[in-house]
Amino acid sequence: MELMEAPDRVRVRVNVSCKWGFYLPDKEGEEEVEAVFKVLTFGDNMVIEKVCAYRVPVHRGQKVTEYDIQEMRRLFVKRNLLSWTLPVPVERENGWMTKESYQRVSRVAAPLLDTLIDQFEDHMAVTKEDEEQMSRQASVLFSKNSSGVTDACEGVRLFCTLGNFWEKFGLDRHSIMDLPYREYIILKMMQSKESESIKRESRSNKARSQTKIIAGHGGRARPSQGIVVGD
Question: Fewest CB atoms within 10 A around its CB: which of 24, 111, 118, 150?
């Protein structure tokens, strides 16, 4: 029901106990804190990654990009936390939490804030089980004589419904910015698996085309056991 009423919202709940004047996560706690986050979109993630990226030297003058994970989590709060049941008001302006509001929010006990962010991140994560299921169904979906997949997983449903980001999906660069980031990752995975399947099929066709047809006993044509090797 929550998804039907607000598909662009993520609600997380944590049981808490009040200790030393702070609300702290407690599985046995009788009180509950609920927080509402805006779904992280591809556009949100692109902005946050850009702010948190830094270059690190590795060897021979080369550098790789790394990300400040803690800063990313702080920006998730600033960008995506909309409201909660704590007696600390959340005020936003131009799509971000105001500086004054974040100063108040950041004084909430770190274990509670971390637990809320962990649950928010869990909602946009693609698990190992998700990927394994996509791999199994992708091998069926992209096989030569496939007639579709029964009881398709989320990744296959998204891939088949939307098709491709631009040519297949009809999404321009502005529309993609509003695509939930988890769905973006899933679709990218499915595109990769489709590409792998096409490459395997291409290699198989190439191998078959290199097999000579020779005359067997009685003048019947049969595939030769030798493979033509190029120069």
Answer: 150
- This model's pTM is above 0.85: no
Residue 226 lies in a domain: no
What's the pLDDT tens digit per position in 108-135? 999 999 999 999 999 999 999 999 999 9
If one counts the domains in the chain, the total is 2
User: What gap in Å lies between CA 172 and CA 169, rounded to an integer?
Assistant: 9
Are 156 and 203 in a shared domain? yes
Question: Vertex 196, ends 195 and 201: CA angle to 5°?
Answer: 95
What range does the domain containing 156 cover?
128-207
CA distance 24 to 70: 20
Chain segment 5-36, per-residue pLDDT in tens: 567 899 999 999 998 888 999 999 999 999 99
